[in-house]
Amino acid sequence: MDNNKTIVWFRRDLRVDDNPALAAAASSGSVFPVYIWCPKEEGQFYPGRVSRWWLKQSLANLGKSLKTLGAELVLIKTNSTLAALLECINATGATKVVYNHLYDPVSLVRDHNVKEKLVELGISVQSYNGDLLYEPWDIYDERGNALVTFDAYWEKCLYMQKEPVSHLPPRRLVPAAGKVEKYSVEELGLEDELEKSSNALLGRAWSPGWSKAEKVFAEFVERHLLEYSKNRQKVGGNSTSLLSPYLHFGELSVRKVFQCARMKQILWAEAKNSEGEESVTLFLRAIGFREYSRYLCFNFPFTHERSLLSNLKYFPWNANQANFKAWRQGQTGYPLVDAGMRELWATGWIHNRIRVIVSSFAVKFLLLPWRWGMKYFWDTLLDADLESDILGWQYISGSLPDGHELERLDCPQIQGSKFDPEGEYVRQWLPELARMPTEWIHHPWDAPPTVLKAAGVELGLNYRNPIIDEDLARQRLTEAIFKMWEMEAAAMAGKNEIVVDNSENTDNLPIPKIILRDITPCPTYSSNDQRVPTINNSKNGPLSKKRPKHNEDERQQLNNLQDRTSEAGSTRREEQLCSTAESSAAKKQNTSRCSFSVPHSFSPMAGESLQEYESFELNQPQKDQIDMERS
């Protein structure tokens, strides 16, 4: 084993098993594991209460495991991730930083900037795939364009020649000596005193941590996977795998999940068990949607703030605060929708089918901006996952080529009869309707007065009337679609537009193209390194290339590191300068064949008013109100 010192930067890969960054560091010398909590850099995507509770438990579990292996997990709270990493480098004399990839737009920008600065200072930076079966840049069509339908993407994944490779956990870790200001998991401030009583209930239903994740997955495979195809659509109870929070925080390796399920499928195929085969196919397809969410976010990094299909920028959303409040509090008058939103409020969790129903209601019935719903899910879900939220809400709102049609309006009454036929789910979360007969449970407004009286239901008093009639909602949705078409036609007036048929393929859809720009190969190039997308679309306008300003902590750590590296000479700097980050030196020397530009901010398309984005943002008083309600 070499005597190299390596900083292992943990993020959403909170496990010891099949952690490629940790495995690489452990095999090359001593390690300094660190988790950096930087609320300031989270911005509008600061995690919600239940998500922070899970993170706190997961960090405690990871810390115990690393300590058993011989190294301590250092927890740091800071205003600058870069400054914290530089402090660790200065304290330990480390020559390398390793981490596993993230693919959301916020992380892509941050990671690029951090890597760029570290490489300029002569620090070797290597990153790995610890979150996906295949990297987003490994899967494109024959012309090198990103695939924009899930079926095409997943089919290509399943027929990839390269098999995912898992990494065994290290047998032991050699700790790198170094003293930095570190925090306990309590001192990170992930949970305040007012939240602890509510969070205590979460511990009864969930067991965060990578060691617990293995047990949850094993139980699902042995007890529930066989009947997954039959039970997965049942709302309420444990009809799904419940693995999403473990996968989000990287406590469970998606490669191991895929390989284990695939092995079960092979065994069931040999035994002629068609139900088991179908169950595994559907379960792996669910894993595929998670993969696809990262694929879309990487290749179209603007999707957290605008639709993939650009024509929807003309849709006249109804930014009604009262309707938004009624929706999130479960006061819409539609029982299945209200039950779902109240369960979300109380537990931080709802079944995937319920997520589809409540989000479709918000977008299609109430015409609420889909980004409002996406942000609310981010704030309240236990498994809040930005990439999956983006995919889900864009899918529902008609923003994807293979998503729900924009004009599709699903009736909650019919959905309730289909997915909660006995009304047990509604009765569990709406006690005011607990005595309603099954015949009327999903549409109490149609029940005879005698039935309502016997059930103790007074519409408009203890349970509200529907917030909007279904026929009126359908009419308003149709009017909004026609208005969108009119505004789009007006915007296009005077331009030489070519009318094409988009019904059979996606080649001519108004989707920006993404390219990965090749540069001269580098002798120390690693195929594991993170790539960064470049939007190849003239309508997007110029992307900001300004170098971010450094705060005082960063300047101090930069000066300390520069003093140390100048004493060590320039030889190592010249050897390690090759990186995927586009440092100024790397640009001049063309040293990396995977060097790409990344926007520090995303610009609206030409002719597109910023008002489209600003008018639908939650203002501060509204955010405060939601926080107060949640407390």
Automatic annotation (TrEMBL):
Basic and acidic residues: compositionally biased ranges: 564-576
Print the keywords alphabetically: Chromophore, FAD, Flavoprotein
Q: Write down the InterPro entries for this protein, in alphabetical order.
A: Crypto/Photolyase_FAD-like_sf (IPR036134), Crypto/Photolyase_N_sf (IPR036155), Cryptochr/Photolyase_FAD-bd (IPR005101), Cryptochrome/DNA_photolyase_1 (IPR002081), Cryptochrome_pln (IPR014134), DNA_photolyase_1_CS_C (IPR018394), DNA_photolyase_N (IPR006050), Rossmann-like_a/b/a_fold (IPR014729)
Query: A Gene Ontology biological process annotation?
Result: nucleobase-containing compound metabolic process
Write out the residues that bind FAD: 228, 240-244, 283, 383-385
A molecular function GO annotation? deoxyribodipyrimidine photo-lyase activity
Q: Which free-text remark accompanies the cofactor? A: Binds 1 FAD per subunit.
Q: Which cofactor does it need?
A: (6R)-5,10-methylene-5,6,7,8-tetrahydrofolate; FAD
List, as start-end ranges, the regions of compositional bias called Polar residues.
525-541, 577-600
Cite the residue spans of the region called Disordered.
Answer: 525-609
> Which residue ranges does the record assign to the Photolyase/cryptochrome alpha/beta domain?
4-133
Which residues are tagged with the site Electron transfer via tryptophanyl radical? Answer: 317, 370, 393
Task: Give an example GO cellular component term for this record.
Answer: cytoplasm
Q: Which Pfam families match?
A: DNA_photolyase (PF00875), FAD_binding_7 (PF03441)
Tell me where on the tree of life, at the top rank, the source sits. Answer: Eukaryota
Flavoprotein is among the record's keywords: yes
- Family indicated by similarity: Belongs to the DNA photolyase class-1 family.
Q: What is this protein called?
A: Cryptochrome 2 isoform 3
